Amino acid sequence: MRIPIHLTIYEDIKKDILNGKFAPNEAIPSERNISVHYNVSRMTVRQAINQLVFDGYLYRKKGSGTFVSEKVRGNFAKGVIGFEAEMERRGYSTSNQELLFQKELPSDEVVKALEIESFEGVFHIERVRFADGLPMAVEQSYRALRVSPNLKERDLSDSLMKELEVLGYEIGYADQSIHAVLATESQAAALGIEPKSPLLLVRLIIHSSDGDVLQYSLIYYRADRYSVKQILSP
Fold this sequence. Notes:
Layout: H1 5-18, H2 31-38, H3 42-54, E1 58-61, E2 65-68, H4 72-75, E3 76-77, E4 80-81, H5 83-89, E5 94-104, H6 108-114, E6 122-131, E7 134-144, H7 160-166, E8 171-182, H8 185-191, E9 198-208, E10 213-222
Antiparallel strand pairs: 1-2, 3-4, 5-6, 6-7, 7-10, 8-9, 9-10
Helix pairs in contact: 1-3, 2-3
């Protein structure tokens, strides 16, 4: 199936940003110049630019043009967004509260997600994620012991994806799905809401650039504080 041209433009510009071709706060070429380069209409180019702005790679200055976001290269790992990066993109500061950190044998669900054997040990990590001091989400993450055998509780104060990169892994891509669920009593207590309140569950399977599964996360967001927006096209 042929990829829509605006998605090709989106990926090309994003790649140039991540590779450092455009520096933070540097203007990208005008919509007119991009449309000439790809031999497409300015409306098609605008679709790609709008998505890049929404995703946090670019920002607009009225009357001046479109510029690369200042924190984009530090916040994005090859297009995979962590909680800290996404909240910073939305203008929040972040913090964590640890609920659980232990080694265990994986459930069938975790075995399937991590693509490991049932006898392999995993780290099971649970944290409350805060945005501007307010509870935003409860996160459950699972990682095979062999991926980061020396993971310590002190590593939980920062992004787990950054910890992977420190170990030398290159984040490749993530499989993500979003579901509507109701809060359990423990989740409600951690988030300061009533049991059975609506939550948005984000299931995230993070892969290395080689395709190996590095981490499986279940992130339960408060539906009254978190929303998902996408720009769709035919």
